[in-house]
């Protein structure tokens, strides 16, 4: 199976307090921020790796995972990390964030899918910076492919994926024929969430996203990383979304010290009104 | 009201604010002890001064009425130093947490001793500076407590102990006199450095009320690595490489100490420790196979390619068997959890008896071999969990209670085992307490590390500064 995984880097929420908004309020100043992959995209990569291996012997690959990101040269670090974690190939579409919106990313991905011809496109359900939750759906529409969003489990079948989605009060299971677009939720990295045809149903994965082993980090330097121009993927690079303004969240109010449990209960009742 | 003199209480009522003293049962239980749970708290009362003047007047009064005093900070101490078990008056610095403006030119800040360590960090971070005293209890511990214990932590290899980061102190002596030592001067060669007397004195020589702290710039980008190594010799061989900043790698062509990175932490732990963390918390081994020994290493401002080249050479030279490099901050935090979760997980999954010893790094191998031998001979079947700030020669030896012993039997035997362990520490020229101090818990064993002549000098200093023996009596030394 061949899988294309879309990876976006986002400002590290651990130093999100360093995000600055200039007085004009028309953009976010990202200078000096540390970056990390969008967590949901990391989960998509983990799911893709699980779908292209036998969980018992993960070193022997059983398929191909191609990661793609949209960004300037330094986003290659995000791709290198993905290669170190196990992806086979990487593509960087050269463009900066301010020249992108969800619709444009979906249009460019469509062209890339037509070139790469993957069986599945996997990505996070949303990026945690803009929280837009739209690229996966737009891409499926443009490709006219089956789609499953918010996947919590994926099981490979012959020519199809069985996708479990957690909905209010239960689990809805979809069978999507390949090729298809699947966006993933955080439960996808639980120990028994993803099974390729090769992995025994009794196999249990470690919880979470795998770490990159040092030898693999070294070896990843030799894996192919290609650069593609946005213009080569889509002639229409116009933006549909324009931002009107940005505002930081209100500063948190200082906490108070309560005298005793009775005082705490009284305040929860009368002031916070949560009891 | 456990024995505080009536006249003393009356004077407090007359001369201090109404909320100055607490006899509340909850306060007595809370403020009567630190992190240790060996002694039952039984203080006479708790005083909450707001100013140095109040501390001064209070100690003068205590001196007049011969009331013993226990200075109390964030009560995270691990040696029983802040325990009041014999009716003492606890003086809590909780209300003295004012922080002055950061002096950007001098790189200093003046704070009251009750300022919480982490609050100081936040206060200075806005200016790009930090007070590099950092460990898991920083959310509760106070500057005064840090100084009184000369606290260490996981970054000592980079920054040294608290001692290095204190320029000036204001101390209230047992008789109520206020002493200013040091000021805000980096250089001050004018005779004996009295400041150093109070750093690490565990509340026995005076109450620290204010401090001028030396600051440094916030660290640059930090990379965190976890290595699997075969044995303790491997841990030390890797350390030799790491402390030179990677300059010893073949082909690096660099002078020792001028490698592509600076080590900010070098910690080790054993598979037994990891196993306990895994039993207690939802963590996993990030490596594909277990290993007897692990090293967690943090480096600052690594030149990425050079760091990776160094790591590759470690594999080529078979110095490590496996490893990982955190790809971003969440992975780095996950790796740190494996190390920082150990202490808590040992307590949550069993009854550990803790020792925190220091050895010259060159003696570590011999000491650990001796320790294995000792336990195999005298305490067979006891589980020892070893971890620590190995880059500083600091070893945490945790002995876990075997299932077939009761708590009391175990504690009795650990006392015996301590004598054996400390005799071994002495033979290898080490210290029975690396970071945590002596307090009440290690008092019986002080003679294993300090010579009779040293102990006599320490007693003489104590007598000079506190002739009535009212400040933290029974801590470090018996009267
Ligand atoms: C989870 C955890 C992790 C820890 N990790 C480390 C570590 O890595 N390295 C390390 O060194 N320690 C460590 N400690 C121990 C402890 O946190 C430190 O020793 C800390 O510096 C104690 O500060 P405190 O304010 O809590 O002091 P307290 O416990 O309140 O007091 C400690 C001693 O200082 C005296 N004292 C307190 N304030 C004053 C004052 N203003 N004037 C004079 N004397 C005073 C007390 O009388 C007592 O003897 C750890 C503790 C915990 C609970
Ligand atoms: C050209 C020049 C440049 C200098 N630059 C600096 C500088 O940059 N920074 C600086 O700090 N100083 C400087 N100094 C001062 C001096 O060199 C230093 O203070 C040096 O440390 C003194 O060492 P010494 O062995 O010469 O001591 P001495 O001059 O012999 O003695 C100095 C003091 O130490 C005592 N003493 C000496 N040996 C012992 C011992 N074994 N045990 C106990 N007490 C002892 C003596 O009784 C005396 O009180 C400089 C001096 C010169 C001439």
From TrEMBL, chain A:
It holds the Pfam family ETF. Residues 25-237 form the Electron transfer flavoprotein alpha/beta-subunit N-terminal domain. Keywords: Electron transport, Transport. The keyword NAD does not apply. Gene3D superfamilies: HUPs. The keyword Signal does not apply. It comes from the Bacteria. One of its GO terms (molecular function) is electron transfer activity. InterPro entries: ETF_a/b_N, ETF_b, ETF_beta_N, Rossmann-like_a/b/a_fold. SMART domains: ETF (SM00893). Belongs to the ETF beta-subunit/FixA family. This is Electron transfer flavoprotein subunit beta.
TrEMBL record, chain B:
The lineage of its organism: Bacteria, Pseudomonadati, Myxococcota, Polyangia, Polyangiales. Its cofactor is FAD. It comes from Chondromyces apiculatus DSM 436. Gene3D superfamilies: 3.30.465.10, 3.30.70.2190, 3.30.70.2740, Vanillyl-alcohol Oxidase, Chain A, domain 4. GO terms for biological process: respiratory electron transport chain. Belongs to the FAD-binding oxidoreductase/transferase type 4 family. GO terms for molecular function: FAD binding; oxidoreductase activity. Keywords: FAD, Flavoprotein, Oxidoreductase. It holds the Pfam family FAD_binding_4. SUPFAM superfamilies: FAD-binding/transporter-associated domain-like, FAD-linked oxidases, C-terminal domain. This is D-2-hydroxyglutarate dehydrogenase. It comes from the Bacteria. Residues 39-218 form the FAD-binding PCMH-type domain.
């Amino acid at each position: 199976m061949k899988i294309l995984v879309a990876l976006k880097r986002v400002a590290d929420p651990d130093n999100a307090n360093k995000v600055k908004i200039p007085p004009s309020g028309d953009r976010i100043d990202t200078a000096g921020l540390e970056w990390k992959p969008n967590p949901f995209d990391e989960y998509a990569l983990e799911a893709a790796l699980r779908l292209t291996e036998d969980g018992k012997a993960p070193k022997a690959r059983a398929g191909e995972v191609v990661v793609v990101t949209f960004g300037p040269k330094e986003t290659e670090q995000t791709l290198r990390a993905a290669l170190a974690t196990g992806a086979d190939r990487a593509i960087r579409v050269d463009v900066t964030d301010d020249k992108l919106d969800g619709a444009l990313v979906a249009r460019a991905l469509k062209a890339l899918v037509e070139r790469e011809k993957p069986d599945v496109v996997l990505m996070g359900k949303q990026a945690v910076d803009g929280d837009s939750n739209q690229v996966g759906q737009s891409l499926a529409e443009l490709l006219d492919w089956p789609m499953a969003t918010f996947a919590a489990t994926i099981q490979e079948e012959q020519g199809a994926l069985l996708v479990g989605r957690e909905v209010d009060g239960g689990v809805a299971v979809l069978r999507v024929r390949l090729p298809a677009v699947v966006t993933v939720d955080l439960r996808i990295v639980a120990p028994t969430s993803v099974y390729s045809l090769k992995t025994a149903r009794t196999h249990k994965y470690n919880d979470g996203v795998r770490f990159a082993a040092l030898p693999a980090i070294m070896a990843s330097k030799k894996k192919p990383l290609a650069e593609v121009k946005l213009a080569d993927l889509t002639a229409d690079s116009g933006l549909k979304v324009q931002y009107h303004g940005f505002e930081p969240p209100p500063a948190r109010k200082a906490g108070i010290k309560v005298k005793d449990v009775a005082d705490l209960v009284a305040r929860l009742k009368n002031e916070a009104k949560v009891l | 009201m456990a024995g505080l003199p009536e006249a003393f209480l009356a004077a407090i009522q007359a001369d201090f604010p109404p909320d100055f003293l607490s006899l509340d049962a909850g306060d007595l239980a809370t403020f009567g002890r630190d992190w240790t749970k060996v002694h039952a708290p039984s203080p006479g009362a708790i005083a909450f001064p707001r100013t140095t003047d109040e501390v001064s007047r209070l100690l003068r009064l205590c001196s007049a009425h011969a009331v013993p005093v226990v200075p109390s900070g964030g009560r995270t101490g691990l040696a029983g130093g802040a325990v009041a078990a014999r009716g003492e008056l606890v003086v809590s610095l909780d209300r003295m947490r004012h922080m002055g403006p950061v002096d950007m030119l001098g790189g200093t800040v003046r704070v009251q001793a009750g300022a919480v360590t982490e609050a100081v960090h936040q206060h200075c971070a806005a200016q790009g500076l930090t007070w590099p005293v950092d460990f898991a209890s920083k959310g509760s511990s106070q500057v005064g407590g840090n100084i009184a214990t000369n606290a260490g932590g996981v970054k000592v290899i980079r920054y040294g102990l608290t001692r290095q980061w204190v320029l000036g102190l204001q101390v209230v002596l047992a008789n109520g006199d206020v002493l200013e030592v040091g000021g805000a001067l980096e250089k001050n060669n004018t005779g004996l450095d009295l400041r150093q007397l109070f750093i690490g004195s565990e509340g026995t020589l005076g109450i620290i009320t204010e401090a001028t702290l030396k600051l440094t710039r916030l660290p640059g980008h930090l990379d965190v690595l976890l290595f699997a190594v075969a044995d303790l010799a491997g841990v030390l061989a890797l350390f030799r490489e790491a402390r030179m900043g990677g300059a010893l790698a073949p082909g690096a062509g660099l002078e020792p100490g001028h490698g592509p990175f600076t080590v900010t932490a070098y910690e080790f732990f054993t598979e037994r420790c990891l196993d306990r963390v895994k039993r207690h918390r939802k963590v996993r081994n990030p490596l594909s196979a277990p290993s007897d020994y692990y090293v967690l290493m943090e480096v600052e401002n690594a030149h990425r390619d050079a760091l990776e080249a160094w790591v590759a050479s470690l594999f080529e030279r078979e110095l490590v068997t496996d490893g990982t490099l955190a790809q971003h901050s969440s992975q780095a935090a996950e790796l740190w959890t494996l190390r920082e979760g150990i202490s808590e997980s040992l307590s949550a999954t069993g009854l550990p008896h803790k020792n925190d010893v220091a050895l010259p790094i060159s003696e570590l191998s011999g000491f650990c071999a001796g320790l294995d031998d000792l336990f195999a001979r005298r305490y067979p079947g006891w589980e020892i969990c070893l971890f620590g700030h190995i880059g500083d020669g600091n070893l945490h030896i945790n002995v876990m209670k075997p299932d077939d012993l009761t708590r009391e039997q175990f504690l009795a035997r650990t006392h015996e085992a301590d004598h054996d362990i400390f005799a071994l520490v002495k033979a290898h020229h080490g210290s029975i307490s690396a970071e945590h101090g002596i307090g009440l818990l290690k008092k019986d064993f002080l003679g294993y590390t300090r010579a009779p002549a040293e102990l006599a000098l320490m007693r003489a200093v104590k007598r000079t500064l506190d002739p009535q023996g009212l400040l933290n009596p029974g801590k470090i030394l018996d009267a």
